[in-house]
Amino acid sequence: MSRLLSQIEDNPEYKVIFTDLFDTLIHRNVHPNYTLKLWGKFMIRELGLSIEVDQLFSIRAEALSFVSKQQNLKKVEVAYISVVEEVYKRLVNSDMISGIPLSRFENVFERADFVVETSVQFKNEALIADLRLLKDKGYPIYLISDFYLPESLIIQILDFNGFTDLFQQVFVSCSLGKSKEKGSIYPYVLDQTATDPKQAVMMGDNKGSDIHKAEKYGLHTIYLKHTKHKIRNRKNLFGSDLRAFNKVCREIEHNCEKSPHPFSEFVLHFYFFTERLYIKAKNAGVNNLFFLAREGLYLKRLFDAYQEMNRFTQEVKINTHYLKISRHSALQIALKPLQEEDFKAFKGSLGQMSISDFLNGLDMSEADIQHILVDLDGDSAEVLPEFFRSDIFNRLKENNTFISQYEKYRTNQKTAFAHYLENFGVDFEKEGVHLVDVGWGGTMQENLYKYWKKKIPVTGYYLGLKEVYNIQPGTKRYGLNFSIYPSRNHTDDVLMANGQLYEQLLAAPHGSTIGYTINNLVPDAVYFHEENEKQVFEKLVYPVQEYMFDQFKELFENLRPIDYEQDTAQKYLTDLALRSGILGKKKNAAFIDQLSRGFYQNVGQNKVGVAYSPNQIKESKLSLLVGFIKSPEKMFRYLVKIKPFMYAKGIYWMSWPVNLTYYYIRFNFWFKRKWLGKGLTN
């Protein structure tokens, strides 16, 4: 029998039990005041406030003090709604909030308090078990709490922890305007429960409020010292958010390194992208996000999980959709009539193709293609560097069969795509379009903007931006992990170096979208899944994605009770990218080699496989060396290719000197921060 059970059962005078809640039945793994900082973090995130966490924390503290003095009440006696209204008033009058009604502010305020509390709590299982035994033996148990959250929220917290049924009734100071601290709540509770104080016992950890004040009104008391919990609360005054953040991220990274899944530590990149996307979308008031095929499928899965775990879905949930599209299909739906189309969208590598590549991409019958090729009398397989400026293309535009089939294909694609979009049930004209993809420039975004005749804004949220095309007010785009727009810094250079690997780790279980069709009045996308690519996904990528998803959820739970800035996350991601790219083990190089064999490009020549080769580098060795010494981050894109290249050549054992470059890069960054702090060395 426990000490508490013997204390109560051995005393025949004890008929009714009153108990405290916080630091008695429920404890926190953070300092009590830290919960209010976390509340500020969630308020800013959910309402899109442009304010620092510490400032919002101070505003709430000042608001509580003000109302407490104004109403001549102890702080724990102040009505919760009074604090909510005072905080709201201060934010409105300081132009820190606008366009958010009090009702919504109150809902988010309350939800943030609940989410924070339940994120940092753990139960005193032994004490709760003792009380349950006493309840089963017929002892009525009442909860008395001095707390700033109202009775309704306290009951929600009890429900969450699974022991609401333990209590006959719950009494909370801020809901009654009476407190244990002042002593005024005791006569009220005794009266409400028709309890003789000589037959009641009050148990708690606060010697003043739970013991002395209760004894003043004739109650018996049991003092629960809970020394180790009080020491923990004192210790939690110290420490560092940065240290806590790094510890969580390092643990996840360590898990991934020990696992049989190469590059699964990239879940950290995807986690912070998801978090930033959520914050950005909330700030912009976005209702619908369209995740673009194919990398968007896994990103959507992560975002949906983030929203679900975030537990704010009852407030304003962002709807997510999967848009089956590719660079190829996006180019097709944006095509204009032949006499108006300049094909400028097919720039760079997109314009490198043969006449056969182009005609096959327009879904023409084999008979029509052969008829056109005979008329043109040229080398149908010759890949032309600028196909749309070639003589054979100029002759193609004058071919009657092509003119007819081009227009038919163009209009069919537009019609099928229009019906496909209708199925989403989104008012695009009212909301605009908000796209999510891995990156890198916004080709699909720009073609969708053209599809809507530049009348509907199309906004892009990307893991990263590596190219700047023709960004307009109607095609704003954001690289959330890295971006060269509006300018780049050393972290952008590092994080963008391994763009191909992001794509490969975000691969989908289906093929590339090559167009749109309507079958039995149902519009849908048409896929082509290259067999090599399919096998690579099933054997290599899928297991990594499943493992990353589990680590993503663990990362969420462990980072939730930490208040950190995105700059902190960015520094960690930058160093992670350096370590992954330079210090990676042999299994990583082997993984890249296998992945690259199945990398399918769905535009232009539709190549399968991509190879790392030093012949692709146009600069001289001397200029590369000078560039590395001066700005090693700009050369990092070459460094990440060395080990995979050496593995493919069978000389991986010679790659160990590459590891030394990591330490030089770290030194270079430190030196520039320390001695070239004016930032004039770009």
TrEMBL record:
- Out of the domains of life, which is the source? Bacteria
Alphabetical list of Gene3D superfamilies matching this protein: 1.10.150.520, HAD superfamily/HAD-like (3.40.50.1000)
Has keyword Hydrolase?
yes
Tell me the Pfam families matching this sequence: Hydrolase
Molecular function GO terms recorded: hydrolase activity
User: Which keywords describe this protein according to UniProt?
Assistant: Hydrolase
List the protein's name. HAD family hydrolase
Q: From what organism does this protein derive? A: Pricia antarctica
